[in-house]
Amino acid sequence: MKQETKGILCLLSSSFFFAAMGACVKSIPDIPIAQKIFFRNLVGVIITGYILIKNKDKLIGSNIKLLTLRSFFGLLGVAANFYAISKLPLSDAALLNRMSPFFVILLALLFLKEKINSYQIYAMFIALLGAAFVIKPQFDYTIIPALIGLSSAIFAAAGYTSVRQLRLYSSPYTIVFFFCTFSTIATIPFMLKGHFTSPNYKELILLLLIGLFATSAQIFMTTGYRFAPASKLAIYGYTNIIFSTIFGIILWSEYPDLLSLTGGVLIIVGGLINYVSTNNQSPNSED
Description:
Blueprint: H1 3-27, H2 33-54, H3 64-87, H4 90-97, H5 100-111, H6 118-135, H7 143-166, H8 172-192, H9 201-227, H10 230-233, H11 239-252, H12 258-281
Helix pairs in contact: 1-9, 1-11, 2-3, 2-8, 2-9, 3-4, 3-7, 3-8, 4-7, 4-11, 5-7, 6-12
């Protein structure tokens, strides 16, 4: 099997597990968000910690400031995404969260001074138009969950932009371990202040599955990018939208309406334009 094929399979697996995580989050509406985030990351601490110790790698990276910044934005992104999942159809929450690559382009331009081409600008506008269709702005309280869902993409993009610099100092598993540890500790005060519910047997299993699926998704993503460059694989992350839509239809009969379908097509088209323009810009990216 070719290295790139292995990378594609890893990214598809990652997208499936992220969608499965979202389905678990939506399945336990009575559990506070802070508690869901705690379990999501506690399992991650255990699994990535074991991998780092087994590989005799560093648990703590050398750039604590950048690790903390990435973890802070990542935590905000997860919190916003979990809130959106609880209030919106699963497919809509996934669509809005998949706006993050376009915000990465913008943040990389503003803060890392990376150059972008005209096609990437077109891609951003098309994707933002798609997000507007998904949000369906009615200018009342119903727009809030959708805007929070979109903010999850902005926070995630800020975290990913930080990771670009962190890769110079820390291994991928060290970055994930620090993020999971940071998020686990950060959610404890919220649970102590009442954002905690004693889960029943079913809810406990789903909480543990949130952590298992999220960590599996992260590991598959990290492994995939070792087999092939991000420019070749990033487009497959959009399959998360398809998996999320399937889960939504099967579990909650959440059939996307025409506006969401139109928005989804526009976001994916924007992603394809960005993918093609990035690959044409860096033909030697496999080196």
